[in-house]
Amino acid sequence: MKLRLSTSNILSGGPSIVRRPISEKSNVELLNGLRLNFASCKEAATTVDDQVAGNLSNGHDSEKKNKIPFESWTSLDSNCLHIPSKAFQATPLTEESSEYDITVKLFLLPGSRFADWRLHLQEAIAAVLQELSVESINLLIVSFPGISFDADTEGRGDCGSNNIDASDSELSDAMLYAWRQVELLKSSGVALQIGLAEFGQDRLSKFLLRTKHRPTVDQINVRDCCVVPESMMLFAKQENLELLTHNDCTNILPQGTLRELLDGGENGAGVLAGASGEDEGLRGDLKPEWVVKYTAVVRDRGVIENKGYFASAELSEKRLGRDDQ
User: Fold this and answer.
1) What's the pLDDT score for residue 68?
2) Distance between CA 287 and CA 235 in Å, rounded?
3) Mind listing the pLDDT tens digit for each residue in 226-264?
4) Is 211 exposed, middle or buried (0-12, 13-18, 19+ CB in 10 A)?
């Protein structure tokens, strides 16, 4: 079974000025956004249940809200459990899509299968397009697992080590295979610009030789006050690449964090059974696959109107309910 998590628009309280510094790390923003959205949808589902039953809520029944069955605020569609239900999502843009700059960043997570990366790209982009009710995005950036830009070693002719269970050549082949899907999105007009994250000069120079549609953006995480090595800046200029910086985590959603978010514990959503096995919920091995972050900026006003995340995981499921205990 697939699990599809959504924050909806985390700026639903109002648009954010794009020039304002954002200090919150992406992993913290993701988790806070998911928790808030889950709580809001639980509350909405509880209110509906109370109205149907003819009950009046006193506003203090937190225990009831925590124990509400996850089926009442999630939805199952073609073996994919949407958390929350699609009925609670859908925050489309308020103006014509041509009025926005829409940036999408896909994080392919450690542990995801190389062979599935192209499918993950399709799923993530489809989710964003449907959420925003648009047909295209301005920029797609892909972050592959296990690699990171290191300003201290840049320019030494080394691709750098990767942190996943694969050789560097295997990882390079897998990235190129996934990039073919990115190229399809580019050629079909779905993604107007395409880019990569965390590629240093040596890795990038080798990658460019094997691509049909070259990336126009390289997004790197620079730890020391956003100082980009001169060799990297010269290389980017030569290859007509725009260098962008970020403060995202590469492994934005570890397995343990996701399970804690979804389990039946005190701060969990109650979708998965707790470690004790006493809670109702779903059971099985949980494997995070991808996270996608999207941002829609109103071009002529410089404000972020819509920002959110989707996350996907695979659950080798065994249902645990009242009858199974």
Assistant:
1) 84
2) 37
3) 678 899 999 999 999 999 988 888 789 999 999 999 998
4) middle
Lowest mean pLDDT among 9-23, 81-95, 149-163: 149-163
Query: CA-to-CA distance for 135 and 12, rounded, in angstroms?
Result: 22
Distance CA 68, CA 54 (A): 17
Phi, psi of 39 (to 5 degrees): -60, -40
H or E segment to which residue 31 belongs: helix 26-53
DSSP letter at 204? Answer: H
Distance of CA 105 to the CA centre of its chain: 7
Please spell the DSSP secondary structure of 152-187, one letter per residue: TTTTSS------SSS-HHHHHHHHHHHHHHHHHHHH
- CA dist 182 to 125, 175, 277, Å? 10, 10, 42
